[in-house]
Design goal:
This protein is an alpha/beta fold. It has a single domain, classed as 3-Layer(aba) Sandwich (Rossmann fold), CATH 3.40.50. The chain has eleven helices and nine strands. Helix 1 packs parallel to helix 11 and helix 3 crosses helix 8. The termini are far apart.
């Protein structure tokens, strides 16, 4: 069953079938139906869902069809019994989603963990990824020893997310999780994105909270997905050589966006990536946080459109 997302004309909350299972997706066909319109696949970050892209989907759809999927264990896509819920498994899942959509070539947008997933996909499947947009991607520092000294901002930012997730999981097992807890958890998540969560569009907060209370995923499954994905990212960061080899292998034109006040992905890591790939276009924006497409959707769309114009002009 499909339904339009209230407040966002042109965005539809629907499902696609991936590997025989129903996967929740947001879809926007928009005005980008002209010949040669480019499909765009959007991958959310840890603890998020397709809803984190809702603010920019209509704008992106002016250039071609747009789909944002919920990774297994997040949003409203329950994990299967054989899902490992790791970054490598999510790489395979996103490619299977592209196959299910019938998209041979597409632009890939990824935020946080989704940015790490998107980088690995672009490195592994250069024949399919025509463009790459990375928003505060969870790429590791060059030296794993830096993990021993996390920034104060990272500790302060992540602590309530992990605590709230564990609490939500425990209450979910008991059947006690409700809208009040879900909205609190959504607000804690948004503190990583907005300087002032009280200024957040209530519709966006409501969509995030509704994901937690939908009943599509029970608390124990959501907690397992969160903790397993965190462990998978930690293993990649503990030995960052594979991720940096992937960065070197990416062939698609790439736009890298981040912020100086990001509590999860330090600006120094993004600048190191741009130094390694000077052919990538990069913007590390003052006072911005972890998800520009939510914090300032108009700025996100402007930067993506300008990058697209320069990319297409260079290819002409």
């Amino acid at each position: 069953m499909s339904r339009r997302v209230p407040g966002w004309p042109g965005v539809v909350d629907t499902h696609i079938v991936v590997g025989g299972r129903r996967v929740r997706a947001l879809r926007a066909d928009g005005r980008g139906k002209q010949q040669g319109a480019e499909p765009q696949l959007l991958v959310h970050g840890l603890g998020g869902s397709s809803v984190t892209w809702v603010e920019v989907m209509a704008g992106l759809a002016e250039h071609g069809p747009v789909v944002a999927v919920d990774l297994p264990g997040f949003g409203r896509t329950p994990p299967g019994p054989d899902d490992t819920l790791t970054v490598p498994a999510y790489v395979e899942f996103v490619m299977a989603a592209a196959d299910a959509l019938g998209w041979e070539r597409f632009t890939l947008h990824g935020n946080s963990m989704g940015g790490l997933i998107a980088t690995l996909i672009a490195a592994r499947h250069p024949e399919r990824v025509t463009g790459l947009v990375l928003v505060s991607p969870a790429l590791p520092p060059r030296l794993p020893v830096r993990l021993l000294v996390p920034s104060r901002a990272t500790v302060q930012g992540m602590a309530p997310i992990v605590a709230s997730s564990l609490r939500a999981g425990a209450l979910g097992v008991l059947g006690l999780a409700g809208p009040e807890l879900s909205e609190k958890r959504a607000r804690e998540f948004l503190k990583l994105i907005y300087a002032d969560p009280d200024a957040v569009d209530r519709r966006t907060l409501g969509l995030m909270a509704a994901d937690f209370t939908s009943g599509a995923i029970d608390g124990s499954e959501r907690r397992r997905a969160l903790l397993t994905a965190v462990g998978s990212i930690a293993r990649i960061w503990a030995d960052p050589r594979g991720a940096w080899r992937a960065i070197a292998r990416v062939e698609a034109p790439t736009l890298l966006l981040g912020g100086t006040h990001d509590a999860l992905v330090p600006a120094s890591v993004l600048r190191a990536v741009l130094a390694r790939r000077p052919d990538w276009e990069g913007h590390v924006l003052d006072d911005r946080r972890h998800a520009l497409m939510l914090e300032e959707p108009a700025a996100y769309l402007d930067l993506v459109n300008q990058w697209r114009d320069r990319r297409d002009g260079a290819a002409a």
